[in-house]
Write a structure and sequence with these properties.
CATH topology of the largest domain: Creatine Kinase, Chain A, domain 2
Distance between the termini: 29 Å
Number of helices: 24
Number of strands: 18
Helix content: 40-55%
Largest sheet: 8 strands, antiparallel
Strand content: 5-15%
Radius of gyration: 28 Å
Bound molecules: adenosine-5'-diphosphate, magnesium ion
Structural class: alpha+beta
Length: 695
């Protein structure tokens, strides 16, 4: 039997492989590149490439690819073989340093949001040595950043790396003030929990909505849905267990530390969580997790749905992004300490997050905005579209006491006057099972729970890193000038918490009262992507990203355009699919059933007029009327699709949201109602019951 430690990372060109396969001086030069971003000498690059190639070929690789993350939510890469012809008609396997360091994919087919029009048509990929290369399916994967020729980012990795730099720089400044002179870097980490659904492949193939859109556009509620609350953490069915086992093993081979797996709340819904890692690696690994979830599923006759809302009426899928900051010396900055001084430092970082989240609710909301996620947020199953922070009762009481300069009665009822310099050593509040909060402090990290299941985790981490970097920068600017550090620190923490206290909310985020309360507090409530996106171009937001060198102006505008464009395309594809299914599958099916009912009634009457035909008549009347309504709704949807404004993206997206989505809702209502009345053998689509309870 092969054990997990034996297979873990066997397909990864990791540190131990590098040590083993590279000459010592080359290994050290590469380490410098990895840790300090030093450019690699071309000869050293050649040696690294050669070693990588030999190692990859031993693992069955024939090709290499520069793996990158364009501004969609998936990854891309062109595969080149290692072969190089020799004079005598043979080939050798070759891989040079320059091929490792830089690639030139045809950038023109990836979204650029106008960046290519204003700059250069070409783009290039650049090796990211901080994320290990790996072998998958006979190909050496080299994680890369993807940029236009003048250096504008065309991907999600580049700004993520920049944001990690930004927060490291500012956090180190703050730590210096607390006497941490040995710390050189602060590392932002993420642990994204990934939710997903599994459905049978045969059933999947019979539904165009699943095939084209990844979610059902029709479907009446089955007799049993999420009612029993028996799926969450329940026994995993054997077929799913076999799938999960293989998935874990594949991930482990690629060095992804898959740790937790369980049934989620909805029937046929599951979750996988890896152990957290540096943001950049976490984002790469989350992409691998999503990809392997899909490919392993097909080997088990299953399809993995990563859509945020595959089924109406049961929970959708999200991602929880656990996020924290740690020093290169191993200190977690969000861990309450044991001494008052440690706690003062903790409180300052906590204050930075509170300030950042309150001041930049819009950017956090935008970082999770997508057509798919709009179906979840605010649906009473995921956090609302309002950003707030959950801190737990104890921490909230401590902050209250600081603001009010009152006494704090701690957990052991010991009363003390609070100043940040005389903080109690409080235990971390681990009681957080408040799943309704979009942003919860969970003892040593924050859990951002608004992410959609299919999205890259890069965007929310870029936003978090940047906004907290900005708060830390303002703190450092102020404290570096202070004559009395402790007094200044005290005042700063108190002032910050007082100013931003409105963002703290420990109650039920799903409740209607919270919507009203949040409005009273002046918090933003941006229910849809089209409501949120205009905030991206606010001058203060542009200034923030530009100042921390995460995006330049053009990059922000380009991303805004790409997001709108993708939003519009998704809705268009869904609307077209819906019209097609309704017109060519549902409408004829209902008519076929109507024909049968008419024939039955007719034949009954032919035998004897005494036979009662009330039920046939009633069903015929209702279904016939509903099918006509369906037809009218199809025509309306098609007409509105045809007249959609084509020029202005923003107005177009608003139109899609207001007009097309509501047309789709109307259409669906008729179809779902008819599904409940049409004989099962006439209904052309696998039902919700089949899909969710079939495994
Ligand atoms: P739960 O479902 O209770 O929220 P899980 O165990 O499913 O918890 O997931 C918790 C995630 O948080 C894991 O990915 C874990 O590695 C991650 N995590 C733990 N500590 C930290 C930390 N300091 N920084 C970032 N992520 C963390
Ligand atoms: Mg969780």
């Amino acid at each position: 039997m092969v054990t997990v430690p034996e297979i873990f990372g066997t397909y990864v060109f990791n540190d131990s492989v590098m040590k083993e396969r590279l000459r010592e001086d080359i290994y050290h030069a590469l380490q410098k590149t990895i840790h300090d971003g030093k450019a690699l000498d071309p000869q050293i690059a050649d040696a690294v490439a050669e070693a990588m190639k030999d190692w990859a070929v031993e693992r069955g690789a024939t090709h290499y690819t520069h793996w990158f993350q364009p501004m969609t939510d998936v990854t891309a890469g062109k595969h080149d073989s290692f072969i190089s012809p020799t004079a005598d008609g043979h080939v050798i396997m070759e891989f040079r340093g320059k091929e490792l360091i830089k690639g030139e994919p045809d950038a023109s087919s990836f979204p650029s949001g106008g960046l290519r029009a204003t700059f250069e048509a070409r783009g290039y990929t650049a090796w990211d040595p901080t994320s290990y290369a790996f072998v998958k399916d006979g190909t050496l994967y080299i994680p890369t950043a993807f940029c236009s020729y003048n250096g504008a980012a065309l991907d999600k990795k580049t700004p993520l790396l920049r944001s990690m730099e930004a927060i490291s720089e500012q956090a180190v400044r703050v730590l210096r003030l607390f006497g941490h002179t040995d710390c050189r870097r602060v590392i932002a980490s993420a642990g994204p929990e990934q939710e997903y659904f599994l459905v049978d492949k045969e059933l999947f193939d019979r539904r165009k909505d699943l095939v084209f859109c990844g979610r059902t556009l029709f479907g009446a509620q089955p007799p049993r849905g999420q009612d029993m609350d028996d799926h969450y953490f329940g026994v995993i069915q054997p077929r799913v267990a076999a799938y999960m086992k293989e998935l874990d093993e594949e991930l482990w081979k690629l060095g992804v530390s898959a740790k937790t797996k369980h049934n989620e709340a909805a029937p046929a819904q599951y979750e996988l969580a890896p152990i957290f890692s540096v943001c950049n690696i976490a984002a790469d690994h989350n992409q691998l997790i999503m990809e392997l979830m899909k490919t392993v599923a097909t080997r088990h006759g299953l399809v993995c749905l990563l859509h945020e809302k595959p089924f109406d009426g049961v929970n959708g899928s999200g991602k929880h992004n656990n996020w924290s900051l740690g020093t290169d010396t191993g200190i977690n900055l969000f861990k309450p300490g044991k001494t008052p001084a440690e706690n003062a430092q903790f409180l300052l970082f906590l204050a930075a997050v509170i300030k950042a989240v309150d001041e930049h609710q819009d950017l956090l909301r935008i970082s999770v905005a997508s057509a798919g996620n709009d179906h979840r947020l605010g649906g009473g199953e995921a956090p609302p579209a309002i950003i707030s922070i959950f801190l737990g009762d104890e921490l909230t009481a401590i902050l209250d006491a600081i603001v009010k300069k009152t006494q704090y009665a701690g957990h052991d009822a010991e009363k003390m006057r609070l100043g940040v310099d005389v903080l109690p050593a409080f235990p971390r509040d681990n009681t957080d099972r408040n799943r309704t909060s979009p942003f919860a402090f969970t003892g040593n990290r924050f859990e951002f729970r608004m992410l959609g299941s299919s999205a890259s985790v890069a965007d929310p981490n870029i936003a978090l890193n940047t906004i907290v970097a900005d708060a830390l920068k303002q703190f450092a600017d102020e404290l570096e000038q202070a004559e009395d550090f402790t007094a200044a620190l005290n005042a700063l923490i108190r002032r910050t918490i007082k100013q931003h206290q409105r963002i703290i909310f420990n109650g039920d985020g799903y409740a209607d009262e919270w919507q009203e309360e949040a409005a009273r507090r002046g918090l933003l409530n941006l229910p849809s992507t089209v409501d949120a996106l205009p905030y991206m171009l606010k001058e203060e937001n542009i200034r923030l990203y530009v100042e921390h060198k995460v995006y330049n102006r053009d990059e922000i505008f380009s991303r805004h355009e790409v997001m709108l464009d993708i939003y519009r395309k998704i809705i268009k594809v869904e609307a077209r699919t819906m019209a097609d299914m309704a017109r060519r599958e549902i409408y004829p099916a209902v008519n076929a059933y109507l024909t049968e009912l008419c024939e039955v009634a007719q034949q009954k009457q032919a035998v004897s007029s005494e036979f009662d035909c009330t039920s046939e008549r009633e069903i015929i009347r209702r279904l016939s009327a509903a099918n006509t309504e369906l037809y009218i709704a199809i025509r309306k949807l098609e007409a509105d699709l045809a007249t959609a404004p084509a020029t202005d993206l923003e107005a177009g997206a608003r139109y899609d949201h207001d007009v097309i989505l509501s047309d789709m809702q109307v259409l669906r209502r008729y179809a779902d109602a008819m599904e409940r009345e049409t004989a099962e053998n006439y209904w052309p689509l696998p039902t919700y019951g089949d899909l969710m309870f079939g495994l």
